[in-house]
Amino acid sequence: MLKGIDITLYSKTQTGEDRFHDPIYEETPVTVHNVLVGEPSAEEITTELQLTGRRLAYTLAIPKGDTHDWTDAKVEFFGQTFRTCGGIVQGIESMIPLRWNKKVQVVRFE
Q1: pLDDT in tens, the chain (110 residues)
Q2: Half-sphere exposure for 73 (CA within 13 Å, toward CB)
Q3: What number of other Cβ atoms are within 10 A of residue 93's Cβ?
Q4: Which residues face 59 on adjacent strands?
Q5: Which of 13, 16, 28, 75 is most buried by a 10 A CB count?
Q6: Number of Cα atoms under 13 Å in the Cβ half of residue 11
Q7: Considering just the CA atoms, what is the radius of gyration of the chain in Å?
Q8: What is the pTM (predicted TM-score) of this model?
């Protein structure tokens, strides 16, 4: 049986605005259980590198029923920090046989 790992997702909450009216966010750590961590394909790595100059590190499979916002979010696992990039790819929950129906890609965050 496949089993994912626990990762820390930093959920952003807007706490105000700066003097230029840009939003100020506070990040709150949330543990997300049963996340699969996989390697992106060579094609995905090359495409992202050519389009944005960022090198993909991993692809995360998000469990069904998860309601967190994964857009441009900081995540931690394997003792390292990453940032999600690109959009979330989501399948129809009832049409996917396993426990995961979303995926998001991450890049190394320094």
Answers
A1: 789 999 999 999 999 999 999 999 999 999 999 999 998 888 887 877 767 777 888 999 999 999 999 999 999 999 999 999 888 888 888 888 889 999 999 998 76
A2: 23
A3: 11
A4: 38, 105
A5: 75
A6: 10
A7: 15
A8: 0.84
Helices (H) and strands (E) in the chain, counts: 1, 6
The answer to whether 7 and 31 have CB atoms below 8 angstroms apart is yes
CB burial of residue 20 (10 Å; 0-12, 13-18, 19+) = exposed
Tell me the C-alpha to C-alpha distance, in Å, between residue 20 and each of 6, 13, 16, 17, 105. 37, 18, 11, 8, 31
Domains and CATH numbers, the chain: 5-108 (2.40.10.270)
Tokens for 107, please give them.
């890049």
Question: What are residue 44's phi and psi, to 5 degrees?
Answer: -65, -40
- How many Å apart are CA 25 and CA 13, to the nearest integer? 5
> What are the φ/ψ torsions at residue 20 (nearest 5 degrees)?
-100, 10
